[in-house]
Amino acid sequence: MVESRPIEEFTARWRSLTGIFHDARGQDPRTALGKVLTDLVPEAGPALVFEDPGFPVPDMAEWLMGFGYEPIVVRASAAGPVDVDGLPWERKNLKEAAARAALGISTGAWAVAHTGSVAVYGDRDHGTWPSLLPPAHLILLRADSIYATLGDGLRRLHFEPGGLPPEVKLITGPSSTGDIEGQPVIGVHGPARVGVLLVDAH
Amino acid sequence: MREAWPIRRYRALQDGELRRTLARVLPRMAEGRVRAYEDDPEAEVRRVRARDRRREAVRNPGLVERAMAAIEARGGRAAQVRDGEEAAAYLIEIARRRGATRVVKSKSMVTEELELNQRLAAAGIEVRETDLGEYIIQLAGERPSHILAPAIHRNRSQVKDVFVDAATGFGVEAPASDDLDVLTAFARRQLRADFLSADIGVTGGNFLVAETGTLILITNEGNADMVTTLPEVHVALVGMEKVVESFEDLTDLLPVPAMNGVGRRLSSYTTMISGPRQPGQLEGPEEFHVLFVDNGRSQIRGTPFEEVLTCVRCGACYNVCPVFRQVGGHAYGSVYGGPIGSALTPLLSSLRYAHDLPESLCTLCHACVEACPMDIDLPHHFVALREQAVREGLKPKGVSLTYRTWSHWWESPRGYRRSIRLARLAQRLYERRGRLQGGPGLLGGWTRTRDMPPVARETFGEWWERQEERRHG
Ligand code: SF4
């Protein structure tokens, strides 16, 4: 049984940062995805999906197509990332694909309720470009990976069995700035819209 | 040569637009901080722990070496550089080796301090600032005026003018209005192309963990993550005082800049980089370098000023400072403005270069001490620097003489009384409608923009004496 207090606190804080949140637990995953995408992305387009080998959603590409998206799949393999056909991605092509995507989808490694943050990893099996280059980012987050405090999350990271990933990004709301007249503007370089789809632990 | 303070002050005070923006933005950031602490009862406990960890870290001379070893162990490269010249040489070497000509940079005060952009430009390497505020001032050819909001001195229509000029130069469509979303979108579009084509990414660093060699970058816009993951090379320039001991320290440290600068629990992006990309990974750089920058820091270590090295550049002291709120960052005439800049600038360079900062830009009100998450006692250091400036003979002769004479007379009650009688005679020359205007020497300058009540016809002391005489005499 997953504790519900951190989930509630996370939800409230994430939403207060203008993040979109959908609880897909116990729901049909396809329907839940459709709902969150309606709120998150103004117009369907190319969708960069970095598949997490520890957390596969085999039908994701098909569902996305059903919603009018053009899925661009990145799948980790022992030899490096491959596309849907199992062909290796090249760095340059992946960069360009990410840059033209309307939506990036990746998984969150863990989250922090107190700050409303989600950690995404950049290592062999996980990418951070979906969270950076497209104007909208959807994070799939497992309900059992929300910690109460930042300290809990960092401890988990420190003792990751595979060692520290080369890049870890704690995302706390959309890309934002106050650089002109101190007025808040969202969506500077990174995504203006961020969404979390909370899914069951299995 | 720096411009003299009265000139900088005059220019800032004449700039109505600047002062309106400062008056609107700074109090809001300061209030944000207060509210964030009220909202989070545990925050104060974490802040005190963070402060203690920073104090221990700046006193620990072995941390840089440990950090360097940890970085190398994870496939990164680490080096120490003494000054801007060495830092630039390191980068130029990489650029030559790789045939690189284009650098993208995310905001970093230490690279400002090292004048890195100018040095790289001189070597034919083009540097593009990518933080929105830095981008604006780079296009305008200016210096940052606030550590968090470097372009805070410009309003939207002035920003639009800068972008319109730039668009003409780039041969692209200019922003259609001074709407904030339109201006931001223009920068986003232009900078996207720079990110995707850059050869080298340069960043600063908020913290660096000695235990794991992890570099921490705290940002809001997302540009730092572009700079660190898109080019083939990432070079981080980190002040040697930014190293902290253990990964666990991050729990209390990571929230400090955002909590105290703008009142958020965390900034939008807290990025932790522990090495170059792994085999089989496509994102991230092939080469990851960390340069530990001295540039005057080691001369502060072990002195009574050591605690200024614990500064996390949160900006809280800027936001509350009554002087900064009036004149903004450019009036400091140095890379680091604001209260902390008034200490850092003379300490990193020399007191001769910038003794005006601790002398003239602080009222000793202590607002900064109250706001500082590291409890840095800046006013205390300013007084010490003022004393040092006098000892080193940096004050003009007339000034030292005036103060020396003044303190001589007021050392004894007799001298004091005599000075009063003398002043009463002399002030007849300068009294206008019951106020003192003008005066000999320093007083003349002082009263040019202020006025002062004259010495009373009878002081309390004299009155008292008269009463005593009457009673006993
Ligand atoms: S001196 Fe203190 S308040 Fe000022 S920037 Fe540094 S840490 Fe923040």
Q: Stretches of chain A where pLDDT falls below 50 for ≥5 residues?
A: none
Helical stretch tally of chain A: 5
- What spatial form of chain A do the alpha-carbon principal axes imply? globular
Cα separation of the termini of chain A: 12 Å
| SSE topology string of chain A | HEHEHEHEEEEEHEEEE
Element layout with pairings:
The complex is a heterodimer of chains A (202) and B (473).
Chain A (H helix, E strand, L loop, with lengths): L4 H12 L3 E4 L5 H12 L5 E6 L8 H7 L3 E6 L15 H10 L2 E5 L2 E3 L4 E6 L13 E7 L3 E2 L2 H9 L8 E5 L4 E2 L7 E2 L6 E7 L3
Parallel strand pairs in A: 1-12, 2-3, 2-4, 4-7, 5-8, 7-12
Antiparallel strand pairs in A: 5-6, 6-9, 10-11
Chain B lengths: L4 H10 L1 H24 L3 H17 L3 H11 L3 E5 L2 H15 L3 E4 L3 H5 L2 H7 L3 E4 L2 H9 L15 H15 L9 H18 L2 E4 L3 E3 L4 E6 L3 H7 L3 E7 L3 E2 L5 H4 L2 H6 L7 E5 L13 E7 L22 H5 L1 H6 L10 H11 L2 H4 L1 H5 L6 H5 L6 H14 L5 H14 L2 H14 L4 E2 L2 E2 L5 H5 L13 H13 L1
Parallel strand pairs in B: 1-10, 2-3, 2-4, 4-7, 5-8, 7-10
Antiparallel strand pairs in B: 5-6, 6-9, 11-12
Helix pairs in contact in B: 9-10, 16-20
The complex binds iron/sulfur cluster.
The site of iron/sulfur cluster has 14 residues of chain B, from helix 14.
